[in-house]
Give the backbone structure.
Amino acid sequence: MADENPTPDPNKQIIQRLDQLESVIYQQISRIYEIEKRLGIDFVPQGTEPAPTPVETPAPQVLTIHPTPDMPLETPEIPAEVEPELPAPQPKASRFRLPEARDLEALIGGNWFNRIGILAIILAVGFFLKYAFENQWIGATGRIMIGIAIGIGFLLGGERLRSKGYKHYAHGLSGGGIAILYLSIFAAFGRYHLIDQMPAFIFMSLVTATAVLLAARYDALAIAILGLIGGFLTPVLLSTGKDNQTGLFSYIVLLDLGVLALAWFKQWRILNYLAFVATVLMSAAWLDEWYAPEKLVTTIVFFSILFVIFALLAVLHNVIHRRLVKLPDVALILINAVLYFGTSYRLIEPENHAYLGLFAVVISAFYLSLGYLTWQRDREDRYLVLTFLGMASLFLTLAIPIQLDQHWTTMAWAIEGAILIWIAQRTGSRLTYGAALAVFGVALLHWLKIDLFEFSFRAGGVFTPLINKRGASSLVLIASLVAVIWMLRRNDDDEGADERTIVRGACLMATVALLLTWLSFDLRDFYEAAKFPFRQRLNDEPALWNSIAWLDSLKHFFITLLWAVFSCLMLVTGLKRRLMLLRIAALVLLAMTAGKVIMIDSQYYAAPWRTLIVNPVFGAFALLVAALAFAYFSYARADETAISERSEALNGLLAAGNLAALVGLCLEASGHFTARMRTPDTSRYGFEAGMRDFSLTTVISIYGAVALGIALKQGRRWMQNAALALLGIAVFKIIFIDLNGAITGRTLLLNSTFAGFLIVIASLAFGLHALTRSDRAEPWWKWIAPAILIIINVLALIALSVESNNYFDKQLSGIDTTAATEWKNLQLAKQLSISIIWAVYGGAMLLIGIWRRNRLARIMALIILSMTIIKVFLFDLSSLDQLYRIISFVFLGIVLLIVSFVYQKLMKGAEREGS
């Protein structure tokens, strides 16, 4: 039996009974709260703090406890269905309030209807008074007294209801009373002229003060906002059309102080923002309507007082109350400073510009003092401290360009940025790092926008490279950036290492870009100064254009040299120091150099003063190719660089280097003969044009063939495709460009067009040989080799046919048109020669195909012979004279017989081998 009914633990029984007691207490609390809710009781003890969220308590269960002989216990009967309705967590712990206490029904019935009812009563009173006024029931004084009485009645009624616990209802009545009093006093002054401006102003001020006191007494933010609006509208409503600056701004200062005191006392921050907006609007309206230069001192004094008031708000709220700053507070600080300084600058600048720098320094010192005060009183609020320090830095930064000359401004900002970095190193503040970068950014922008162009060469001036105002600001800016990099490298603290790396990288890139830009512009200005004397005499001596162009070409060459050297140095440093950002910048600069050389430097490729090879354009291309080659070999030796980066960089550099070399050679070849074509002697124009086409075809063909051989040897697929594309371009050019520009009457075989065909054919043959012997070609290239062989033979046949036609055309051009017989014989000989060339070529190709056992060659030979047969039988038979016809047929017949004999012999030998 002991095993079936074990003796329960006494401690466990006590815990269970305590749980039951807690459940019953919660149930009773819920019932009390329901009663309070129905009676409208809303009691909140003062000084309560938010309580933690209560843990959900499980529903009580019926327990059966087995008492021991020594400790008899009786379990009270608690119905199992009793589940106490626990209050949900509320913002204030002392309110045992369920969610239903603030449901939509209570909100609408208790608050919204109250406001709407008050508004309805105000409108009803207005309509009644309007009706009474229209019917002359009540005079002007009576109307005003009725309005004042109703307003005071509303205030008294609100106070009465508040004392009985109807807080929200009382707020509505009090707000309505304030509004009615404002309207009544305004009507007495503005509509009925019963009182003067000063009494009206005093009465309205009293209403505003009453609103502030009621807001504080009732803890009603809505009444405070109403009083603020009424207070700022008072000067507007009571305006007489005359300026009273001292009175107006004295009133605004006092009103701001009162409202802000209430906001500080009640912690209503929204009043700060509303008061600031209202003050700005009132000040802007007064400036637009009444400001004059003679009111400058008074205006600045009042604006300064208002500025200080709103600047101190953050100190009052966040330092005295020890509460961390929030984003709206920071926004207020920034907007207040910007509006004050911007407005004051606009007012002071026309007549007192010399004092603006000092003015900015004073503001900077003011914010520095606030930052120090905040740091002394509440060091935990680093955000507020850094905000004040940032504002101090901002106005000190603004003071520099206001007071100093342009290049001094850049230097001062650069030094300031370095100092901020030093401060950030000591404090570890990310915000200070950001501010320092912002200052450096402003300094760089100022240098780019002002120093870079303001101190450039001017017509009639003197320019000394490096030693000039732009050079001074550049050196200081570069030195500041280098100092920052040095400071960041010396800091080995793990905290903030990522941020320091980013800052150091940004400073490094800025230093490189700045130095490169400075030297490039100094080179440009040096040559612009050198060209200036020639430009002055250009109208009298037009031939000086060549001298100007020569200097311009030298300018571009030396800038290219500068960029190429810079990119190589950056790349080597990036590879050794493992700085990926610097390597990327070096490659970008190389790409920019390539674009500059191709798009800008090359414009003088055919200048009349150029000499072959030794000229700035070819020199620029040579520098570019050398820089790309240097970068290629630097990457090839960089074993510690990532494989993917190396592979992509090597392929890109190799492609860019080959493209630059090809374009440079083509421009050099074309430019040499194009320049010779521009001479006054036009007799050699055709020859020079032919040589130009031949030189371009030669460069493209040979480059493509050599590139194909190297690509097949190294197994570079993209280079193989590019080389084949070059050879295709050469074939297209020789057929569609060189042939169209060929000179009629050129020497047989010894001319540029035929030489061009030979070069292309030789290049294709070299490529075909390399392709058939390589084991690294693409699998699908087995179709490329036959195509290349076909193209070679087609080009050869075209070249021979064109040469034959050109020879007879030259003969025909020298015959008098009256010699018809001779002219006809030459035409017949021209046609006969084509047939003979085709027949001999086809026969020779067939023999070669048989000897080399090349089936494709034999097929091509048969096609050519078939074309010859068609021509002889369809064209020669009808167009040639009898003698030429006989020769054509005999020659064709002999060739065909030889071909047939050779085939028969081969077939017979094959039969012997088979037997």
Remarks:
- The chain is about 75% helix and 0% strand.
- The radius of gyration is 50 Å.
- The chain has six domains: 105-242, 244-377, 404-536, 545-678, 693-804, 815-915.
- Confidence is low (pLDDT under 50) at residues 1-6, 45-102.
